[in-house]
Amino acid sequence: MKLRSLLLISTLLASPLALAGVKETPVTLPDDLGTAVLYSNDSEKGRDAGVIVIHEWWGLNDYARSRARQLAEEGYTAIAVDMYGHGKVADHPKDATAFMEAAFAEPEKMNARFNAAKEILRQHKRVDDKRLYAVGYCFGGAVVLNQARLGNDLYGVASFHGSLGTQSPAEPGKVKAKVLVATGGADPMVPAEQVGNFVTEMSNAGVDLQLLTFPGVKHSFTNPGADAVAKKFDMPLGYDKYADEKSWDALEEFLEESERN
């Protein structure tokens, strides 16, 4: 993308003109699959990458939408998808667990939601349909990695503090997407053994993998609200500003790679 200087990025993001260029459009997915929110940047010209954003286990809340908006502020077109369907958002871990388990119990419906959002992006006037990405956080990280394993035609997928385990390992030659994973070294939900098994899985399948591990960093490290949730529910979560910023920088490079190729 064009915005490389951190100083320039900060200036543009603070500018009312830059923010005014971002358009937020609620979207209804076909076949009663639920909803999504599309973020586009009218101040940008030409075609660029399109990004599907998948939320944490809480559901499509303000945090997930803020990440999609952040991508649009940088010139991309992003769609934040409700993978639970019809506005389900949890405030308690028990509800989040129930929503997540219900979603995983219907993989065909999850795939349909994902692909419906992908088609909306593909048809957008500012999206280069050869440069489609998916980015997921926590639950969403597992979702986008699964789409890669299924051979979905994406340029790349990026998982942030998402589960890396699977009962259906990637098959050699099937994964089309490049893969970026950012994980915390002190995340009990993504233990070192799981990370090691994932690296072996990706290597055996011939996947182009970038792995970032941040020592001492807990689960949900990209979410500024993680500390409050950790305190309220006694959970092993924690925001880490350094890991958040460095992993976002890696995502920017990951997205820009398709522009160079």
Per CATH, the superfamily is Alpha/Beta hydrolase fold, catalytic domain
CATH arch. level architecture = 3-Layer(aba) Sandwich
Anisotropy-based shape: globular
What level of helicity do the residues show?
40-55%
Order of helices and strands: HHEEEHEHHEHEEHEHH
Q: What structural class is derived from the secondary structure elements?
A: alpha/beta
Low-confidence stretches: 1-18
Domains, number: 1
Strand order of the largest sheet: 1-2-4-3-5-6-7-8
CATH topology, by name, is Rossmann fold
Number of strands: 8
Quickly name the level 1 CATH class.
Alpha Beta
The fraction of residues assigned to DSSP E strands is: 15-25%
Q: What is the radius of gyration computed over CA atoms, rounded to a whole number of angstroms?
A: 17 Å
How many DSSP H or I helices? 9
For the residues shown, what is the average pLDDT? 92
- Main sheet attributes: strand count, strand direction, barrel closure: 8 strands, mixed
Query: In angstroms, what separates the terminal alpha carbons?
Result: 13 Å
